[in-house]
Design goal:
single chain; 168 residues; 6 helices; 67% helix
Length: 168
């Protein structure tokens, strides 16, 4: 859920000055270098608060060292979320600033690779025989047993007679 600027101001107090440039329209007016520096500063603060929240949770479970100066876990979590949201806005702005140039660079690199591939000699061997004269018959290895057609008819008649004898 988004946090309003007034709520951010209440949560952060004096530290709001670090987050204020991450809001539009001020963020849209910053040059790329300043946006990058802002992202670094916000990431550093978010990571610091994340570590404090993690340490508090460990202390609450009895696994870490208990520090009385750590503060309220819920308030720290909300502050961390404010910094995370600000970092998300700044990262989105960085993507917008650098995205077009990055896409152009990747497209040029791919075109260069394609040209090199087309210029290289084909590594495939010659095709060999073609099917121009048709396929070559391979002799079958199966044994050929020819059955006399009269034998087939005799067996069929024998089965009919046997069945009729059983049916009587």
């Amino acid at each position: 859920m988004a946090t309003s600027i007034a709520a951010e101001r209440r949560l952060l107090g004096d530290d709001f000055a670090a987050v204020a440039p991450s809001h539009y329209p001020a963020l849209g007016d910053l040059p790329a270098e300043e946006v990058l520096a802002l992202a670094r500063a916000l990431r550093e603060q978010r990571d610091r608060l994340r570590g404090m929240v993690h340490a508090n949770r460990r202390a609450g479970r009895g696994k870490g060292e208990a520090r009385a100066a750590a503060g309220n876990d819920a308030a720290l979590t909300r502050r961390k979320q404010v910094y995370a949201a600000a970092l998300k806005r700044v990262n989105h702005r960085l993507d917008a600033l650098h995205g077009r140039a990055r896409r152009a660079w990747h497209a040029a690199a791919l075109h260069e690779v394609l040209e090199r591939k087309r210029a290289a000699a084909a590594p495939h061997p010659a095709g060999g025989d073609t099917a121009g004269s048709g396929m070559h018959a391979k002799p079958s290895r199966k044994r050929t047993v020819r059955t006399d057609p009269r034998e087939i008819g005799r067996v069929s008649q024998f089965v009919k007679n046997a069945q009729a004898k059983r049916d009587r």
